[in-house]
């Protein structure tokens, strides 16, 4: 399996949907069991006790019905957990291997932006070993905040989310950047300005070649059509919003985000406004 790591509103859904449109790649809708499973594996060492907990967690997680249930029944999940070593990476490989087979593809990946909040726990229990392939998607925090504010309205996220963006993305970069065979950094800005080039490189990283149809909006899953914050998913990939933060953020907010996320902005090549 492979992971797509990125903060919310970074374009992870677009990336995942384009990969899912590939004839050999599957990416289920966003899941929510991986980090909770990691906590169980860390806290409950007895497999006889932990296996039923892990199986129940997966099958009854809030997102199961809209994600893994498209591929695996409760009974199939329980059988996989029962027959797989009680280890994070082994369990993830078993589950996503089964997803790929059910989809008629050869490789499946996970896209769960909120996992970044507790990624250290997944690392601790061995769920993100050196051989696990990671696609790390980063987007300019100023445009991330434009998107968050349009979706959720003004909130206290103005005072903390940029710090999270900075620390979480720098952690992934520091953790994996010395492993080029299993770490691939993608900037959202490059993805929307050069979709073919970006996805050609991503596909090569995963051991496959670009298929032109994977970039077409009509090949994206219809489940997101009613979600207001995903309306652009059904339009051609476009770079027309890259400077939105310059005109759509209230005065002073861009500088506020830059103060919180300066190290990350500089590390990922985003110039400061100087405001």
UniProtKB/TrEMBL annotation:
One of the protein's GO biological processes: sulfur compound metabolic process
Pfam family, one: Sulfotransfer_3
Domain of life where this protein originates: Bacteria
SUPFAM superfamilies tied to this protein: P-loop containing nucleoside triphosphate hydrolases (SSF52540)
Keywords per UniProt: Transferase
MF annotations from Gene Ontology: N-acetylglucosamine 6-O-sulfotransferase activity
Alphabetical list of InterPro entries matching this protein: Gal/GlcNAc/GalNAc_ST (IPR051135), P-loop_NTPase (IPR027417)
Name of the featured protein: Sulfotransferase
UniProt organism field: Ideonella livida
Taxonomic placement: Bacteria, Pseudomonadati, Pseudomonadota, Betaproteobacteria, Burkholderiales
């Amino acid at each position: 399996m492979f992971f797509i790591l990125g903060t919310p509103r970074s374009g992870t859904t677009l990336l995942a949907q384009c990969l899912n449109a590939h004839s050999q790649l599957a990416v289920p809708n966003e899941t929510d069991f991986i980090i909770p499973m990691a906590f169980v594996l860390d806290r409950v060492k007895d497999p006889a006790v932990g296996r039923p907990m892990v199986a129940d967690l997966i099958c009854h997680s809030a997102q199961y019905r809209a994600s893994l249930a498209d591929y695996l029944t409760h009974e199939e999940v329980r059988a996989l957990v029962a027959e797989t070593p009680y280890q994070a990476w082994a369990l993830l490989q078993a589950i996503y291997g089964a997803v790929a087979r059910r989809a008629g593809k050869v490789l499946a990946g996970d896209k769960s932006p909120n996992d970044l909040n507790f990624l250290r726990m997944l690392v601790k229990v061995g769920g993100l070993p050196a051989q696990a392939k990671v696609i790390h998607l980063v987007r300019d925090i100023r445009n991330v905040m434009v998107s968050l504010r349009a979706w959720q309205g003004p909130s206290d996220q103005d005072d903390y989310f940029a710090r999270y963006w900075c620390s979480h993305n720098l952690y992934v970069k520091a953790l994996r950047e010395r492993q080029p065979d299993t770490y691939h950094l993608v900037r959202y800005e490059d993805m929307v300005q050069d979709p073919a080039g970006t996805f050609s490189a991503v596909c090569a990283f995963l051991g496959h070649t670009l298929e032109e149809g994977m970039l077409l909006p009509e090949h994206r899953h219809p489940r997101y059509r009613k979600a207001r914050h995903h309306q652009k998913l059904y339009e051609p990939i476009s770079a027309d919003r890259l400077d939105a933060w310059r005109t759509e953020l209230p005065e002073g907010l861009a500088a506020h985000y830059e103060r919180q996320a300066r190290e990350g902005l500089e590390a990922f090549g985003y110039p400061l406004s100087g405001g």
